[in-house]
Design a protein that fits this description.
It is built from seven helices and 15 strands. It is α/β, with parallel strands linked by helices. It starts with a strand and ends with a helix. Helices cover about 30% and strands about 30% of the residues.
Length: about 240
């Protein structure tokens, strides 16, 4: 996967260093370097990049202010010499925060995080669009339609898909990774051992989800999110 990126920094040395890092990172495609947010504004509105390395403290328009007017498809890694801006940066959904002086090692850790985010996001879009996934089961790739899933059970290093036709599909996979890929709120984690296809829930009994004779617990960690889904669909 190749991620298009640009750099905005009013310090020429810092901007040049980031540009050199971007150009030697195989999965980054450098599209431009700008010395101010105002200078970059027109280009990045008309031709947005996927990832922006954005300095926070700049004249005319700060990085935080500029982040708020960027197209939503552009994700941000903030760069700054002042650590007190970290919390403010995350309020505008920054993927990460790099504190100057920035080493290539720190740059790679941050861009690896971005690469993982874009990879997951891309798979989410594909699964949502095509409504199926291919999972490894018994040395084969088996097609599992999202609309056929009732719930998924985690069993140590494996997961088991329970399907509408009564079939069970076992696959070597982590619940955490699966939870990241499945579309929300259609699929929700209700317990460390269960992910449920919420639109297929037939019955809730004493805050447990019931599929025939199977009672799926809702743990405290996921209670608020699950309750919100139920509340939205409850006729009162």
């Amino acid at each position: 996967m190749i991620i298009s990126c640009a750099i905005i920094d009013d310090e020429p040395l810092a901007a040049g260093l980031l540009e050199s890092y971007a150009k030697k990172t195989p999965y980054l495609s450098h599209r431009g370097t700008y010395n101010s947010a105002v200078q970059a504004m027109k280009d990045l509105r008309e031709n947005p990049v996927q990832l922006l390395f954005l300095d926070i403290q700049m004249p005319e328009l700060s990085g935080i202010e500029f982040a708020k007017i960027l197209p939503k498809e552009s994700k941000i890694i903030f760069t700054t010499a002042f650590s007190q801006y970290a919390v403010e940066g995350y309020k505008v959904n920054a993927l990460d925060y790099l504190l100057k002086p920035i080493s290539y090692d720190d740059f790679l850790k941050s861009t690896d995080k971005a690469l993982e985010w874009f990879s997951i996001s891309m798979k989410q879009e594909v699964y949502q669009r095509d409504r199926f996934m291919l999972v490894k089961s018994d040395y084969k790739l088996q097609r599992v339609a999202l609309d056929d899933i009732l719930y998924i059970e985690g069993l140590k290093d494996y997961v088991r898909f329970y399907l509408k036709n009564g079939e069970k599909v076992m696959s070597l996979m982590s619940m955490k990774k699966l939870e990241e890929y499945l579309p929300k709120p259609e699929f929700q984690r209700t317990h460390r051992s269960y992910i449920v296809h919420m639109s297929e829930v037939p019955l809730i009994d004493r805050f447990r989800i019931v599929f025939d004779d199977v009672y799926i617990p809702i743990s405290e960690n996921y209670k608020e999110e699950v309750q919100q889904y139920f509340d939205q669909h409850t006729l009162v």
